[in-house]
Amino acid sequence: HVAGAAALLLSANPQLTRQQVRQLLRETAVTIDPSHPNPQSGYGRLNTNALVATQVAHGTLTGTVLQALPDAPIIAQAVITLTTSGGQHLRLAVDDTLQFQALLRPGVYQLTMTVFGYMPLTISGIVIHTGTTTQRNLVPVALPFARVSGGVWSAQGQPLVTTVSVVGTPLQVMSDSAGHYEISLPYGVHILTAAANGYKRTRLYFNVNNPAGHQGSFILYSRPTILLVNDGLWHYQDFSSYYEESLNAAGYSYDTHIIYSPFDETPTTEELTAY
Length: 275
What we know:
By secondary structure, this protein is α/β, with parallel strands linked by helices. It contains seven helices and 17 strands.
């Protein structure tokens, strides 16, 4: 795939040096992990459209996904797709600040966006001109929603700072120092989980249908504090999924320590004594 992307780039500009090809591959890649490059995903996912566009006549499309209602569901993992006049589909990445940018050849595009908790959004007739920047901010319309709130407590009555996630969705929030959490969800049946290392994962079921909101609190019971040490990426034999499946099925929460090289990433005795 990398060789093919480099070939496409050189077909657009045969004068590029080896170093320029490497740099352009890195600069146009879509980041997978926030900190990059890293041993797991490198600089990210190849983006051959943006790569070749750097060497041909192009314009720039930029924008921000905006949340019209402050108490609406969190906008997470927005999926933006551009469709060319020829029917080609181009996937755009939205960063953590809900901004997006794409280098595009001149032409007319259609933009579609889907995001959990919101109606699909389509904008047609986006015209891209050579050497210009076109801005399109996106304001999706939220589906009917309500607030779900409550507390996260240990069985001993202590508030817990932990992650509350909505199963099957990208939505999650952290409870605060008083154990309180609050999240907006579209109408429907949702499963919320609270997980903290050293406690058993707990679930609550909500039929979200009341504009006034819903209340529900979690009680977490103590369990061993677990560290899953994974050196499979060093050996190119990663069996960690078996352990993860078993721990998840048993309701255990755990931290993960990945060893890319045993020479300098093996956990120390001091680190292990916390587990």
